[in-house]
Amino acid sequence: MAITLKQPLAACALALAAASLCASASGATGDTHPKASKVLKQKEKAKPAKHKKENKKDKKDKKDAKTHKEEPKPDVADDEPIPDVTDTTLTEFSCELNNKVSVYRNLMDDSYIILRWQNHLRRMEKVGTTTGARRYESAKTGLVWIGIPSKGILLDSKQNRQLANECKDAEQAKPAMAAAPGDKTS
């Protein structure tokens, strides 16, 4: 039995015709490849938008907005009122990795502090300790500030991690004296 060249070519042509028929049918139903639809969306976004003409009032409003800048308000945690820092003393701490923490204390009431961390003000309530450390917590945000004589530490109790360590104010950052000036060892 001799195989002619016409039979394999006919089978190949039939397969190609079926493939093209399937491809056109899938295109007719609206199915597209996910990457192709992503590329089409990006092209749509890249098209320049048609601008409408601005009237004189809109231009004046934009100019006024540029000249009148509002003072930035400090961010506060979710739906908390802005803590009042009047009648408080400010202590700024420099921590490891160039982190900064500011603590506002009311000298008449040490039951709370207001802590500024990453431009957010948070009121933190005092928690009693047996070690003598000053511990303040914010139950809502999970922040914990622990102050000991040599340094301060800021913790996140919800994520169980340190946010800032080796936080020292100006007094704590001074080098310690090896011996008192009046002591002589001879």
UniProtKB/TrEMBL annotation:
> What segment(s) does the record annotate as region Disordered?
25-84
Q: Its domain of life?
A: Bacteria
Q: Has UniProt tagged this entry with the keyword Ribosomal protein?
A: no
What UniProt keywords are attached to this protein's entry?
Signal
Q: Where is the composition biased (Basic and acidic residues)?
A: 55-76
Listed InterPro entries: MliC_sf
May I ask which residue range the UniProt record assigns to the signal sequence?
1-25
Q: This protein is called what?
A: C-type lysozyme inhibitor domain-containing protein
Q: From which organism does this entry originate?
A: Massilia pinisoli
The organism's lineage is:
Bacteria, Pseudomonadati, Pseudomonadota, Betaproteobacteria, Burkholderiales
